[in-house]
Amino acid sequence: MGLLIDGGTGGAAQLRAVTSTSDGDAVPPGPPIYRVETDRKLVALTFDDGPNGATTDAILGILERKGVDATFYVTGSQATGQRSRLRRMHREGHVIGNHSWSHASLTGLSDDGVRSELQRTSRLIRRVVGDRPTTFRPPYGARSDRVDRIARELGMRDVLWDVDTVDWQRPGADAIRRTAVRNARAGSIILMHDGGGDRSQTVDALGPTIRGLRRRGYEFVTVPELVAAARRG
Ligand code: NI
To answer: Is the pTM here over 0.85, yes or no?
Structure first.
């Protein structure tokens, strides 16, 4: 990947991190991604703010039974005490993305603050599962060109969403399912949460959401797979 921009301090460590990606999870540099242009009926389910104990386990169990690969945007502060959950995500074919260390609003931090939030989390993920993340999702969707540039220096692309289930407001499992199924299009990135509060409605909605989308002809892929499908046209 020719995208490394040496941020000054830690250049050698960054270089090692950036060049060590070994699998097909790499996402090439570019502008933030909200949805991907594709004619194929592919969607990506994404889960933010975990890992979150039994809730994440329940979501992983449903995804496993349904044969669905998803993308988890984890915070480092949550992940550090739940390394076995990170390993399970990775082992079962899911992709782990970076959602900062402390769920800070990154646009309000200094360059060093942003770098620290992202780098700490990427290092943890890499230490635990062996692959560093190649995408990040800014907490609260609070992005800026500056934040994106710093993330790019760390080898990550900004991934937002085009379908917001608003599951964190707990509108009921049926409303979560309906929002996801009605608003999904080819190439959609669907936002859900396994952490950040009581997510039992999300757990209840997940199976019916998967069924509903499959009934409409959609297949589930990870974010890197979705991006790769767009590149192939
Ligand atoms: Ni979040």
So the answer is: yes
- For the annotated catalytic residues, the residue numbers are 48, 193
- Provide Rg for the chain, Cα atoms: 17
DSSP state of 106: G
Query: With contact defined as beta carbons under 8 Å apart, do 74 and 95 qualify?
Result: no
CA pair distance 13, 127, nearest whole angstrom: 14
- Confidence band, pLDDT 50/70/90 cuts, at residue 23: low
Q: How many whole angstroms from 48 Cα to the centroid of ligand 1?
A: 5
Could you give the angle at which helices 111-129 and 11-19 cross, rounded to 10 degrees? 40
Tell me, in angstroms, the distance from the centre of ligand 1 to residue 194's CA: 10
Rama region for 120: left / alpha / beta (φ>0; ψ in -120 to 50; rest): alpha
Cα 192 to ligand 1 centroid, rounded to whole Å = 9
Tens digit of each residue's pLDDT (9 = 90 or more) over 177-222: 999 999 999 999 999 999 999 999 999 999 999 999 999 999 999 9
